[in-house]
Fold these 4 entries.
Entry 1:
Amino acid sequence: MTQFYNHQAYIDLNDSQKEAVKNLDGPLLVLSGAGTGKTRVLTARLANLLYSNKTKPWNILAVTFTNKAAKEMRIRLESLIGPSANSVWLGTFHSIAARILRENAEVVSLNSNYTIITPDDQIRLIKQIMIDQDIDIKKFTPKAMSNLINSWKDKGYKPDDINQSDNDFFANGKAINIYKTYQSRLVTLNSADFGDLLLYNLTIFTENLDILEKYQSKILYFLVDEYQDTNTIQYLWLKLFANKSKNICCVGDDDQSIYGWRGAQVGNILKFEKDYTSAKIIKLEENYRSTGRILEAANSIIANNKERLSKKLKTSSEDGDKIDLISVWDGVEEAKITSLEIENLYSCGFRYDQIAVLVRAGHQTRYFEERFVDIGIPYKVIGAKFYERLEIRDALAYLRVVQQPNDDLALERIINVPKRGLGTNTTSLIHSYAKKNNISFFSASQELLMTDELRPNVKRTLQNLINQFIDWNNHNKEISHTDLALKVLEESGYIDHWQNENSIESEGRLENLKELINAMSGFDNLSGFLEHISLVMDGDNEAEAGEVSLMTLHAAKGLEFGAVFLPGWEEGIFPSQRSIDELGLSGLEEERRLAYVGITRAKKRLFITFAANRQIHGLWQGSIPSRFISELPKKIINENIEGNLGADVSSYNQIDFDLSSNNSSYGPGFLRAKQKGIRGLNVYKNTQFEKSVSSVNLNLSVGQRVFHQKFGMGFIISSDGDKLNINFDKAGEKKVVSSFIKIID
């Protein structure tokens, strides 16, 4: 073979990338910043191992985190070395571990034809065990037990390795016993779950040194992608496996370690030099994605983290536009402004599919989805859309039955959600009776309750549910629809259902249910809200210019867009208060890494927004800007944005904008900010009210921002005595009595 250094794939690399590709022996850590071409380096280094005759394809192990990444790397490798790429041990941690386990299954009492059970199968088996051990599965759910077992396996714990203190808090101290029984049942079934794959590998290697030596002699070179995302057992597996040759190259970015909530340990990459004393570190800092100012923002924020390996992104491209920092009044205003800026970008040549809105938490997508639907911006949500999420559909189904008991589809959806013993046999009987008598499912249920067709316990449960719906329907006329919704979700056991699951996923679902209640507060009644939902969920149209991407910051890792919007930069939202409360400084630093990831998704334009107010449980609460905003260099912030209603960010006076202008086209938020001497405020031009605001006198009520308990936030358009015409953000134009509104000053 010719030397790889003459290959175009090597010639096109920059000096740091070439250095990483050429250093083939010994431990190597490639610190690869965002957008610095790590996949190209990994693939080229692997190809160089073969071109240089250092080793054979079957002596190389390349590990990725996703099947997609493994497939992409194999395709690239095939283009460099041809069919021999198929002989490389290339795959995810779990796929490589499954191969080793299949070759040595008998060592851990399995057969080579073992099956890997799905997460659903895992929960079902754990449920059987918990019932056998007389454990209350409503109080301690099988899903929560499954999460606990998985977390133990991610740490490399077998049942005998667990401290009693880690056992006492769950299932009345029976968690370890459930784990032991579960593992025993899996062996009987000749099965393993995903966590077992690496755990069994570790057992095989540590208890059978001859097998370990066989694989250490077979695999001479190790390449690991996304090393910052490894958890404890992956770290232990790699360290043990590569301990003999020490020819291990790990590529990763400590500044992009954002998966601590699922077990990733940023400490693994931070202690690489300690683990391998002869390690060489090469930094990839040349970014090929973003403009200079975007990189300066990312560098400035991440520099505040203490637990990191120093590096600084740079680019040879232009500085680009300044970062647009925009303050808004609330979430509705934030969505409006974002949509206006998106339309402006589109008119300037950006395609919709080059634009992304990245939120910290899934529930934040709701305002943007509704706004995009209202004005016709094509969009897609990576993950389920807000109103299509399971918990939202379930909650809406409950409310649909409260509103209209004869809604068969809704009632059939939630009759056994959460599980209450009304399974398939019961629903089939009710459905058949309803069809035979040409009545609704609800009416059929009521009539069957007057017979002996149902077993006593089923009859009792169904009667309780029907009575609940009747009671909720009566309350629909007596209490607010938001209070009613909360009452339904609590009394049905639906909120308890997700609280008892006690997982990261369930926490997100509970946040979404809270946001659903917030969404309802903008409507007069339950009927109006449900009609609105039907319209929002009505069909998607694919646009020729693609669709705006709407997703969480976690989902955006590895992606890039021409323009990126980062909303909700307020304390408590971003950084997440829960992360700080639970993890302290390490939680805050992971939040900061998440900000770094969000910023570095942008290629040309970056918008950051923060609101002065947020609605929580139907009540308005003031917000303060995220501490991350104060970490942005003011010289790269766009001081000339004409932003909307402002928030007091005087404590963040590192950002100091010119408020001396008397331009009357600025909104009342700007005028209030100027009057109060607020620093660090951007003011966004409110085109909808530009004409009426131009004649605003602060002594008059016209143009003032006001709050109404029923209709929310709005602007005064005109007055007639004590009657005011107000254009509300959500409810539109209404005539109200002045005594019922509060001037926001």
Entry 2:
Amino acid sequence: MEKIIDLINNEMAAAFDKCGYDKAAAVVSVSNRPDLCEYQCNGAMRLAKALGKAPIEIASDVAGVLSDSTVFETAEAVKPGFINLNLSGSFLSDYIKRMAADSSCGAIKEENPEKIIIDYGGPNVAKPLHVGHLRSAVIGEAIKRMGRFCGNEVIGDVHMGDWGLQMGLIICQCQDKGIDPVYYDEDYQGEYPSEAPFTAAELEEIYPAASARSKEDAAFHDRALKATAELQSGRRGYNALLSHILEVSVADMKKNYERLNVDFDLWLGESDAQKYVPDMLKKMEDDGYAHEDQGALVVDVAEESDSKEIPPCIVRKSDGASLYATTDLATLVQRVNDYDPDHVIYVVDKRQQMHFTQVFRAAKKCGIVSPDMKLDFLGFGTMNGKDGQPFKTREGGVMKLSVLIDEIDEAMKEKILDNKKEQNADIDEEEVVKTARTVALAALKYGDLSNQATKNYIFDIDRFTSFEGNTGPYILYTIVRIKSILRKYQAEGGAVDPSCILEPADANEKALMNELTGFNGVMLTAFRELAPHKICSFVYSLSNAFNHFYHETKIMGQEDKARQSSQIALLDLTRRVLESCIDVLGFSAPEYM
């Protein structure tokens, strides 16, 4: 379906043209004064000087032509030269009817779908997921779902940190803890044990201990550096240990990501791209793009138009070691080789912007990606506590993600129990726990996604779990309310019929219809701008419009059965639109709350 604003613009352009005015000025926007009108056009103001006419004269000419329009109920010229517009009920209801009949509720899809890889998650193996991993997972998952909804082929890659010194530290710490010496025997040629010599819980203790030890024990630090180099050079026993670390870590990660309703198509890490590094670096040198600088291999990526200094991209240290830039560039080589994407999107902390500027420029300059491949960096802000500082535990440490999820689940459970006690409702403990998890996830995700991704935000568990205001629970409560009405209607023998939608009966019904028309463009706009918060804003406005309509309308007590059928169809469309939106945001609504 065409966006309703495009249909309105076409009608306005025809009116300008009929009056002999430049139709390029006939641009309509949603009114910034909804108390005065639904849409407005300021085109007369643009034309006045060139035509030597008063803006109100031009506006009056156009408004006069629109008096016979089937699109507008009213078109009024007001000083100094605005055209205030209100849609006709028949035009609006016809549009809503077509939305209701469409399986995607009229949502616009990409005309030229892309193959897109989204790099999000970015956890380090052998470490538990913590609150710092939340935003990448939540935002990245939403971007992935938005892209798919719009018709693109989207591939999500977790891109684990499984390379570098941390692995050498774990290998040496495991050796000192007495793990099977077969992994450390350079002459061993047999098969290594199939079962990992440690659990996820043990790994969580091994790395912090090794890291702390390396800062105080220089000899241990040097051993770890040597082990890292040997791992990267292909030492069999160390790579067998790496396989165990990955197996155990990934299994643990999947449990936590599953609780967030986040999943990945690819569970690849930095180690998977290492085989591409030697040839990539050689080609960079052979093609003259990389050169030595103080023993390191670098690619100059500064451009004349830069307003600030962009340092060279170091792709190999003076000691021969790889860096994050090396791994990220090699990963692009791998992605082009395996998937040939049109577009790669990175959802990473915004403090890494300089790193990705260097990587993207080096990738283009060295021919790792084609000139027309799109590389986007969506840098997100930090999640802060009420003190405005990065979110911490009460003791001041970094909170595990599982603990954060547990806390919001428990807070939601208490609120639901309190509500049921106030209503003297029967309490099914198992059902309460299940519902609480569903609503808590909405609270957590919506609390994050309703903020612009690039900005920092305050994590406030009391506000996020509230059933009032711009929160996930409020959105879910709206959907559950609609489901309840639909169940009652169907229990009385009624059936939803989209074709029976009538013109709006009053201002509240018209306001709900007007909000619904925004759906068909919001998904595509939000995805192209990598802006999930725009979907949240739409969902909140639509929920408010529905709840106002609901409180002012006796739907089940409606005596006019044709009107009741129309309102039920309108409610069902509202439900479908809201559920489409929250599915893209990565959560769902329960049947009851």
Entry 3:
Amino acid sequence: MSAVRRCRMRFLPLRPHAQVWLLATAAVLASVNARAELIDNISVTRVGDNAEIEVRFSLRVQYLRHFPKSEGDTLRVNVSLVPINGIMPLVEREIRRSPKNNLLPPFTVTYPDQSGAVLIQFAEAVKFRVGPGSDTRSIRIRVALPPQKRVPEKGEPGADKPAAGIALGRPSQIAPVPPTQIPAGETTPASDVDATAQTLMMRARAAIDIEDYPTAVDTLNRLLNLPPNRFSKEAQELAGVARQLNGEVAKARAEYELYLKLYPEGEGSIRVRGRLAGLAAPSEEERKEVAVSEPSRVEKMLYGSLSQYYYSGATKIDTVDRGTSLPNEQQLSFTDERTLISSIDLTGRVRRSTSDTRVVVRDTYSADFLANGEDVNRLYAAYLEHEQKNWGLLLRGGRQSPPTGGLVERFDGGYIRKSLGRWFRVLALAGEPAVYDIDSERFFYQGGLEVGRESSPWGLTLYAFEQTIDGITDRRTVGGEARYFSNGSSVYTLVDYDILFQELNILLAQGNWQNSHRTNVNVIVDRRKTPTLQTANAVLGETATSIQELLDSGLTEEMLRENAAAVTAESTLYLLGLTQTLNSSWQVGGDVRASRVSSTDGNGALPPAPDTGWTYIYTLQATATAIFSRADVNVLSVGFIEAPTYTGPLVLLSNSTQWRNWRLEPALRYFGQDDETGGKLTRANAALRLSYRVRDSISLEAEAGYEVTKTSGFFAEDETRREFFSLGYRWDFN
């Protein structure tokens, strides 16, 4: 939970001055408002000799910096959130545990921590590289695996554990399998079985050429299940090669031994004996494993977390009114929050060598105990996902976050992705956005094409998107994403163009460069419609709660779109940041932001809004570890806001100290503002969070804080004092 917490979890529209305040807060305090369940998913996958952690968010995020540079058991990643449709949800702290895996020590992901960053804590020190993810919704951490894990673990889908000292080899290091020779003068196979076998053999060899070994193995198995034919001998030898290249050493040995039983003489047997000589003698464990049929290799998992937190807050306001002949003093005290928030995060998973099936449910229930309080339930995820790896097919249905493209919020519907070889994947999704803003019915569908190998440093996604609202067109866009990631540096671009309004909806370019001197430079150029340009914007400012009501009142589709365009502004953000890691304990950095929200014409119901002008935010930040103890993290951030109508400083000082099973996290914040009319505002906040891990899976947490806000002007002075606390527990299970 953030130090300053609101009592409702709902979406609120941002006025221009509020957007400026949020940008300022993100720049220095990094405490961007975020609703509960902001972390959408955490995955761990193998990429060569590394394990790749992808932390995926329900909002778009922009990576800024991280510390330490490349090694440690605690990692802080600073990100900036991008509002959805000009709406920034309210803050709720989340803690997620790593999914069950055989690659990495357990870790937890916390967002936001006391300094507003993503905090990743490993059970032991690891080496890593950090950068933006494959799209605008994620960050990626690649962790170097220890030598004993740089080959697939026994039991992982599609991989066996090699004996010690075995080199799996590369295609160039393994004796090739010559193709079966068709007798001279024979232009077609001798039988229908031979014709089918020849087709399968061509597919298998093509899969090996592009290093798609699971597909090659599956295709060769289909060939070997045919009646004996002229390609059976070649297929048996090639099956061993494909297994070996795929890291399945025990299975490769079994295929080679079967070949020698079937074909003990000839050039092929010489090649196979040579390959077998390069493999160590099988262990008893491997012998048992080979005896088990592949369909029986099933890994079943059930993991997740359950948490409950009680929040309480009270406010006291003292006001002195100077607008009368005698000063008028007033005092108001009230309890503004009594809420119990219960959350469950549940994942069931069944993995096989060729498939992966998951059921995911994440839900949060807020019970409000105030006199006029309203209980709220939010179902953030409820979907079934099945990936058939040997077919290159992914299916997902239910409530989920969009994988890419034109949709920006969670939706209820289906998603399908199909690989066309190693370089191309087609995708489609359709459904209803899961939003809670207006009473209209929406439906969308999207198609796209992904280009680039999954292991390639670059990728391209093209898409077309169509959405209707109450039977008329809401949005019709085309766009694309291009990305490049290599050696810790990355470039990401996103373009979204609305054909219906003939306007550019989003233009985003983000680059990060890291050099050998431990210097990181990041640049962001972000221009977007605020909120997203769509016919639904015509409801803004109206007493009507749906597009259908406006249609019934006599407005035409063209009039609705004109009204929507008239109340849609354009926000622009430019950011330049520089971070320097001095040593294993110290990092310094800073950035400059320039932001602006354009004027709007208004539509009668909603008056015109003026241009905010350019707001500049200058930030310096120092991060240090192991200053007061072996396992502490300290952040000092100082900034200054220069807006057309006000200026002011921002300061943050936070500490996080781990001692055995205890973690202590104090934080101090200060914000000041002087406006052009002579008014002043100061806000100081102190908070302390304490957590204790009872055992590996259960944690107790408490937080208390106090905030004082003072405003003064020509006619009045206000002093607001707020005290708050929270108490709860979290149970992680797997």
Entry 4:
Amino acid sequence: MLSAKDRRLLIKTVFVVFVGIVCATSFVYVRSKETPAQPRKVAQQYVLWPDHIRVQGDMVFADGRQVGTHRYSNMRFRVKSLAEKNYWQKMMTPVVVFVQGNQQPILPATNGHQFDAQQYYYVRRICSEVRVDQIQVLKRQPPASLIAYCHYWRAAAHQYFSHLPSPLSQYADQLVIGYQGEQTGWQETVKRLGIIHLFCLSGMHVVLLTELLRRVLVSCRLTRETVDNLLAMFLPAYLILGGGSASLTRSIIMAECRLFPARLKLPAIDGWAWSLIIGCWIDPLVLTQLGGQLSYLLSLLLHMLEQGELVKSLLLNLTAVPLIVNKVFEFHLLSFIMSYLVSPLFSLLLFPGTIITVLLWPWWSLPAESFNNLLKLTHGLLFSCSRLPGMVCFGKPPVWAVWLLLGLSLLLLDQPANRRGQLRLAGVYFIVFCQLHFPLHGEVIFADVGQGDSIIIKTPLNRRVIMIDTGGRLGFHRPRWAQGQPGRMQAEKTTINYLKSVGVNRLDAVFLSHSDADHIGDLPAVLTKLRVKRLYVPAGMEKMDKLRRRIPANSTVTVLPTRSGDYCEGMLQVVHPDYRGQGKNGDSLTLFGRFGDRNFLFTGDLDLDGEREVIRKYPQLRVDVLKLGHHGSRTASGKDFLLSVHPVVGIISAGRFNRYGHPHNVTVRRLQRLGIRTMSTQQYGMIRYRYFGRNGRWSTTLRGDELKWMLPPYSNS
């Protein structure tokens, strides 16, 4: 280990850390200044790189640089025909376009522990997005510089790889050019097993590619010095060809340092240090990303550990766990051994086989087809392993716990057999695990799922965890060519992600208010990603095909019809409906419960007639918090109903820029006249009520002023 007794080394370290912090702060400040405060009309020219154009169904996404400046924007527009879609899919050269549309800030994370798209694009120096109304191609620019040629070659490689059999095409895209397309099965599998760093983060493929090229060039009778010079010129170009990720940047800089050891006189550890300094100069936020954290940490430890391969693999995975659970909240126990088993498979077979078969494909397709079958077999084995027991939903530790666990793991590297060190590390893990999994407080959470409803209720110590509605998107008929590949459901990014971040991977029950897609559309994801015991629906809905189609064939969930008067899960009373319905708005399952010192009423899309039924049957019903029916529509939240239940707080769950105009201004003004405090997921994102005993407090993910430009006019006043 490095010693702090060397004062010069200590001074240099402090200086580098200080400069890094200043650069990162300046970087964030500049990006924030370049971010527009609110939407504005644009009519400007942009340059689009061909390898930064992605087509999904009838939507085209691209990163464009404004002509005359170095400001980048994320652009999206809809194509109107299959011919137009093919035009953008086959784009190979840089293109100058004239764009008319709205430029607006990138939406930040609106739910707790959600992926932050704003920070993701900041890292890529993109500070705004343009919703394109009209786009006109002015000219195609033939490549005129090395950078332009690299983008051209990368786009050409992607086009070439798309003709390969699957999954070879996806392996080639990801491993050779770092192309980030739709989430594929093998990516999900290696992430689940915790070996994604072998395939995408470690930069191991740069070492393998360099060695492969070296052997080819040496076989051509070139001198070692000539080979080193050629590789030194090729690697910077490959930084663009390979996608420019943090791990790729690090591995290329370290490879450059290894090519000229006699001239540079750099030991391996100094090469790593220079890769970190240059990497932070290129991307000051590199160490805030999981890819950068794992790449730099694991590559450093590889130079410092002297144990055997098996022990080294175990120690590397142990050190990576705090960083992994901080970002993805779970890890698989098999990851400790899978890295050791898969690493030689990757370096000796998968990567070289991909390169060789890809090169031979135009002249001899048999090796590619045979290798593709081997990839399918390998993926099948990995998939089977990923489904074995051992997945630990740990949750997101507090910042102090991440640093403490990382520090104790690093201390254990010097003496892996130190029992006291092992017990300290295990003890901290146990304390943090209990803190996350057995919280003393309970929560009622109104998730921001866009135009839909999804509510999570957790009682103290997580004795009961339930969900009311799952959210989902309303589907509209589109031609087959415009549909694209099915992506991840919204619940995976919002409610499921939040539950796993707090250490929850099971639900005692899911309540579905009625059959609309914006309330039950994401049910398949909830039943697949979480262990669900019971499914409650209003009587009559249990036999509907609309519901049955959304329950996976292998699901063991019990479907229970319920009606007014039922008391479910020891915490919620059903107050509507008291008849067998058809799963429509008026039949919405309406639930009453008390949490902390507040009475809550959850109404789904209950309409005015349904509200009259509730107050007729329960005239003494009083609530503190009302989840307004039908997203604040004028067809719900009638005056008589509000006066009867007398809520203090009204919660509106509605999407930004929704086509229905929810919440309606009539409803909003009615709430204001009655003195009911209103909170909307449109404005505040995820809304949480946390209680301990009879004490409770509200918190929101957003302050409320970040997205005022996206809200209806009456919400801005």
